[in-house]
Specification:
globular, 3-stranded antiparallel β-sheet, 11% strand, 41% helix, 9-stranded mixed β-sheet
Length: 724
């Protein structure tokens, strides 16, 4: 990391006290990537704090700013970005205006991003570079405490060093995906993902079983343990060792700790040792008793291993994808894939700054990473089961599902449930306080979601089988406290004749050529009397009048069910470029206590909050956009402050609280841009006439220069023999 860049940003903050991110980039003349690298390095070193507001802001630590924003912290003075133009200054220091001599002087000292002249180029921010810049003995700050509001990390339970954890996981990601994708060869990504994730699951349950086995063995040899086996009780040679081996096969030791019982055939050592053996080989399997197994093919061995795990663990019944025999993948590639997955270390020891990363932490990360990579590889099809983590996190943090029944009728791989679990754990709740219900029509994705829950120890009810939520509702009597979903946008082929007159269509029969309002009303039907819900839909749902959609939207508003509308930026999804929005609906806008029981919601009858988040986010590549933790906090805080009636104000260009009468004047169109208006632009002190005169002079100068260049170009072409 180039220290010049850090010093320049710190100097700018010393003059201004607090600055919006956009204004800071403008003053520095840096591109977004350069600015983010420098900012995050200073945040990690504890010198700069992240503030609130649309687009985010930063300030020096010690200026009354918080170390980092979270979605759950106490509300700030306002959702309005008072400091975004450097107008609000701490410590009585003079603010630097863009056109001031101080700003010009500062800019003159600054290296230009991408053309740093005599300065060294900015290097990527790595754990090594950040560690080198910290004073000796100073621990790296915990990003979960800073960026995600993880109260557990803020004092209850120290985490592994952030940079060490990130470096470990990043290296693991790169190694695994590069090798796994190379082994895929010509196999379709939609098929291959289940082969990879199934083996990762098998490795995880086997490693977890082995770790528990080592714990039990230590107890059996510990004289102070209730399970101690005294060697003195065994007289014959080998008798004590045989007793230990037999005791280690007692399944109660494992199930008592919620560890899956793994039969010997399914243990990873058996799979890996047998992967390269020729067909017809018989192997010995010791599972309390000795038996033999004849290998017919590697795919059959894996299928039989998964079947054995299912039979021994009722939670996994009909969950695992036992189709390796049918996979069109070469035996050698499948064997190499097993060797690759064998390198996944489902344990990462502590580096001295906190607890270690455990199997569940690593597996959850690997699963999430692979799901995202496969979604990219599959293109349009992939996104049907994968919702970007930042979007899921935004919805979960806005709804705050601390306790109650959670339902997703288009659950895909179960991302909303996973984020709900992480949210509850992060904010000190109990996982047992929620019940998970879901439905998915794709059999392989249904199994994937079930595996996703099983590895995290989340009890779930996904119905008896994969099924269509409209025609074969697996939870007809469910009334959930929270409903969250990202259904496929604008489905045309969804209607069935038996859906005519369905009681779910309380606010109007959805058009047969578009399922958007069918999903919305299906979710409302399953919502408890005081429940809240959120779903992602295409932007057309906010304004379309085709097929009676306008009348349905009007009926929903007249019933006062719509609570908040969030317009999202484009390029968030791997499977579609269709602009999207989030609908938040609730069955009750009366004054009530939050689901955490800590705070109160004010009465919000006849009101709807509009949030225009189209200008938030950053490009994390050439194709996809993503939200930062600051973006999520910005949207979430506006929503929560509005609901709680604490320090909320409308902010032009970002958020606006509208009445139903105001919405009716817009023909019940719910596009946030209609209500939030344009962002207020700071008056730069230059009159319109003066500015126009200056700009006209600048234009004339550019035109004169262009004319000279045209003459020079014509002369050069003529010298080369191409002129007239």
């Amino acid at each position: 990391m180039n220290n010049d860049h850090e010093r320049l940003l710190l100097t700018l903050l010393r003059h201004n006290g607090s600055l919006g991110n956009g204004k800071a980039r403008e003053l520095l003349g840096w591109d977004e990537a350069t600015y983010e690298q420098v900012k995050q390095a200073l945040v990690a070193s504890g010198q700069v704090a992240i503030g609130r507001g649309r687009g985010g802001s930063i300030s020096l630590v010690g200026n009354g700013a918080r170390p980092a924003p979270t979605a759950s912290d106490a509300p700030v003075a306002s959702t309005r970005r008072v400091d975004r133009e450097g107008a609000q200054v701490a410590g009585g220091q003079k603010a630097i205006r863009p056109s001031s001599p101080e700003a010009n002087s500062l800019k003159a000292q600054m290296p230009v991003a991408g053309n740093l002249q005599t300065h060294e180029p900015i290097k990527p921010v790595t754990s090594k570079s950040r560690a080198a810049e910290r004073p000796i003995g100073q621990e790296a700050p915990d990003p979960k405490a800073e960026m995600t509001g993880n109260r557990k990390a803020q004092g209850r339970e120290p985490m592994t060093s952030a940079t060490d954890e990130q470096a470990f996981l990043a290296e693991l990601d790169k190694k695994l995906w590069t090798a796994a994708d190379r082994l895929r060869s010509s196999l379709d990504a939609a098929v291959y993902k289940h082969a990879v994730l199934g083996l990762i699951f098998l490795k995880y349950v086997s490693d977890s079983f082995e770790m528990r086995q080592q714990e039990v063995l230590a107890q059996l040899k510990d004289e102070k343990s209730d399970f101690f086996l005294d060697p003195a009780d065994y007289k014959k040679p080998g008798e004590y060792e045989a007793a230990l081996t037999a005791e280690l096969e007692e399944r109660d030791y494992y199930t008592a700790k919620n560890v899956f019982w793994v039969p010997a055939l399914a243990r990873w050592k058996t799979i890996q040792d047998s992967a390269k053996l020729p067909a017809g080989t018989e192997i010995e399997v010791r599972n309390g008793k000795v038996s033999t197994y004849k290998i017919t093919s590697l795919g059959k061995l894996i299928d039989d291993a998964l079947d054995a795990v299912e039979k021994e663990n009722p939670k996994l019944k009909n969950v695992l994808n036992k189709t390796y025999t049918q996979l069109q993948i070469e035996q050698s590639n499948l064997s190499s894939l097993i060797d690759l997955i064998a390198t996944i270390p489902f344990n990462h020891p502590s580096t001295g700054s906190g607890r270690a990363l455990h199997a569940k932490d690593i597996l959850g990360h690997v699963y999430e990473y692979f799901l995202g990579q496969f979604a990219l590889a599959e293109g349009k099809k992939g996104g049907q089961y994968y919702t970007p983590k930042s979007i899921v996190s935004l919805i979960v943090r806005m709804l705050e599902p601390y306790k109650g029944r959670i339902y997703d009728p288009a659950m895909g791989s179960g991302g909303f449930f996973v984020q709900s679990e992480e949210f509850i754990e992060a904010f000190g709740g109990k996982l047992g306080d929620i019940s998970v219900y879901g439905q998915e029509s794709n059999p392989t994705t249904w199994r994937l979601a079930a595996m996703n829950m099983a590895i995290r120890g989340i009890d779930f009810n996904f119905g008896k089988e994969p099924a269509n939520s409209f025609t074969n509702d697996q939870h007809p009597d469910l009334r959930a406290d929270f409903v969250m979903a990202n259904p496929p946008f604008n489905i045309k082929e969804w209607w069935d004749a038996k859906l005519e007159g369905d009681p779910r269509w309380q606010y109007g029969t959805p058009p047969q050529g578009n399922a958007n309002f069918a999903w919305l009303q299906h979710m409302l039907h399953h919502l408890a009397p005081k429940g809240s819900m959120a779903l992602l839909l295409s932007n057309g749902s906010m304004s379309s009048n085709s097929g009676g959609e306008g009348e349905i939207r009007k009926a929903l508003l007249q019933a006062d069910l719509v609570e908040c509308m969030v317009a999202l930026p484009g390029q968030l999804f791997t499977n579609t470029q269709i602009p999207a929005c989030i609908w938040f609906l609730t069955k009750s806008k009366r004054e009530s206590v939050t689901s955490s029981g800590v705070e109160k919601y004010r009465e919000r009858k006849g009101e709807v909050l509009f949030v225009d988040a189209r200008n938030l986010g950053f490009m994390k590549g050439n194709v996809l956009r993503d939200f930062t933790a600051e973006d999520i906090a910005c949207i979430t805080d506006a929503f929560h402050n509005w609901k709680r009636g604490k320090e909320y104000t409308d902010e032009p260009g970002f958020c606006f609280s509208a009445t139903l009468d105001q919405i009716a004047k817009h023909d019940h169109v719910l596009t946030p841009g209609r209500y939030v208006g344009a962002e207020t632009i700071e008056d730069d002190g230059e009159s319109f006439d003066s500015k126009m005169q200056r700009l006209v002079k600048e234009l004339a100068a550019h035109q004169a220069k262009a004319s000279k260049l045209d003459v020079l170009l014509a002369s050069s072409l003529k010298d080369l023999g191409y002129g007239g």
